[in-house]
Amino acid sequence: MKLEEWPFRVELQPDELLSSFLIRNAHAHGTTPYLFMNYFWPGRALWDRDCDRSADWEWLCEVSELAGVSTEVLATSTLIPFRQSLGSTSLYGDTSLLLSASVYHRTRRRHGLQFCPECLSNHLSWFRRIWRLGFVLYCPEHGIPLMDCCPACGSPVIPHRSLRLDARYCHQCDSCLHNTMTENSCSERLLDLQKLLLNNLLTPSTAEHIGPFHGTALFAAIRSLLSVLTVRISYAAIRDAFNLPETAWLPHDRLQFEHARWPERFLLLELLSVWISDWPASFHLGAEAAGLSQKTFARLRQPKGLREEIQRLKPGSSRNRRYEPKVFDEELLRLKRVDRKAYRKLRAKRLLALALLK
Ligand SMILES: [Zn+2]
Ligand SMILES: [Zn+2]
Predict the structure, then answer these.
(1) What are the CA-CA distances from residue 264 to residues 152, 191, 231, 260 (Å)?
(2) What are phi and psi of 103, to 5 degrees?
(3) Rounded to the nearest whole angstrom, what is the distance from the C-alpha of residue 128 to the centroid of ligand 1?
(4) Which one of the ligands is nearest to 168 CA?
(5) How far is it, in rounded angstroms, from Cα 73 to Cα 63?
(6) Residues 15, 129 contacting (CB under 8 angstroms)
(7) 154 Cα–ligand 2 center, Å
(8) What is the pLDDT of residue 253?
C-alpha cells in the first residue's frame, strides 16, 4: 500500500534527532506525539523505547514515505551512525560515550538528552543528535554549557511528553527549557577536546589525532581511560598528580560515564584531557601515581597505541585482583577533606616510603 505523505510535514533540520523530527511533525498536525504515532502505527509502542538509538530499517522506510524524506537521510537522524563510530552496535546495554536514557515504560530514568537554551529559544528549533553525546558539554554554536535537566524541577528532558504542543517545555512541571540563564563561562581545554572528538566522529578523514589515536580507536582509548577515572582512588590520585584545582567530588562506586550528569562528566573529561595531553608521558605519570597495572586494563578495550603503553606497566598480581593503594586510600582522602596539614604530612610520608623502596 502506498502511504500518503503527511499534509503538514516539516523539514528535517541539520543534525536533528529522529525523535525531534517526529515530535515536530506531530505538533504541526495539531496533535501530541503519542496520538500522532498511534494513528499511523496503531499499537506500536514507539515512545516506550529509545527510537533514536534503535530504529529499524523497515519502519524507517515507512516513515520516509510519510515524511517525504529519503530513508538514507532519515537514517542519519538516528544515533546508529554514531554508534558504529563509537564502536558499539549491540542493541543491548549502553553504547560507549552515548548518554543513556534508560527508558522505563513511558519515562526516562536518566538524564540522557541535553539541550542548549539558546538553540531552543526559537520556536522552530529542534533537538540535536550531538546533545546525546557524553563528551559534548557545550553548545558548539553558542559556546555555553548544555543543560541535562529541567532547570526548575530537575527532571530528565523528555520532549515527546511535553504537556503543550511545544517540546521546549518540561513534561513534568511545564517550565520553559529555553529562556534559561546559564553560565557563560566554558573551559577552553574542554571545548578543544570536544571539538576534536566531534571532528573524529563527524569528519574523521580530516580530524586531528590525539597521540596515536584517531577515529574509532580514539573513542575506544578514551572510553577505557574514562573507566579507570571512574574509580574513586584512581581519580583522586591522578588528579593530585596533575595538580588540578580542588574538588569535593569523587566518583561514586560503579559510576558509568554514560550515566553521569553534566558536572560529573565535566570533572571526568577535565582530568582525562590532562591525562592524555602529552601522550604517552602524561599517561605514564598518571598511571604511576594511581598504581595502575596491566591488570587494571584487562577487561577494557585496548586499541593499538594504548596496548603498547599498557604493556609497559607492571603486570599486576592475578591472585590479588584488588589494587591496594600505596599512597591514596580512603583515609588519605578523608584527611584531604578535613585536615589539609595532616593530609600533606601523611602523603609525603607515604611517597618517601615508596621512593626508598625503589
Ligand atoms: Zn546553542
Ligand atoms: Zn520541570
Answers:
(1) 20, 16, 13, 6
(2) -75, 130
(3) 10
(4) 2
(5) 11
(6) yes
(7) 6
(8) 81
Distance of alpha carbon 78 from its chain centroid, rounded? 16
Integer Cα distance of 301 and 318 in angstroms: 19
Cα(321)–Cα(326) distance, rounded to whole angstroms?
Answer: 15
Could you tell me the distance, in angstroms and rounded to a whole number, from the CA of residue 233 to the centre of ligand 1? Answer: 36
Please name every residue paired with 115 in a beta bridge, in sequence order, or none if there are none.
147
115 CA to centre of ligand 1 in angstroms: 8
Q: How far is the CA of 27 from the centre of ligand 2 (A)?
A: 20
Candidate ranges 69-73, 84-88, 346-350; pick with highest mean pLDDT: 69-73
- Is the pLDDT higher at 275 or at 84? 275
Beta strands in the chain (DSSP E): 103-104, 107-108
pLDDT in tens, 166-199: 999 999 999 999 877 777 778 999 999 999 999 9
CB 157 within 8 A of CB 113: yes
pTM of structure:
0.88
Task: Indicate the length of the chain as a whole number.
Answer: 358
Band the pLDDT of 231: cuts 50, 70, 90: very high
Distance 340 CA to ligand 1 centre (A): 41
Confidence label for 351 from pLDDT (cuts 50, 70 and 90):
confident
Given a contact cutoff of 8 angstroms between Cβ atoms, the answer to whether 81 and 118 are in contact is no
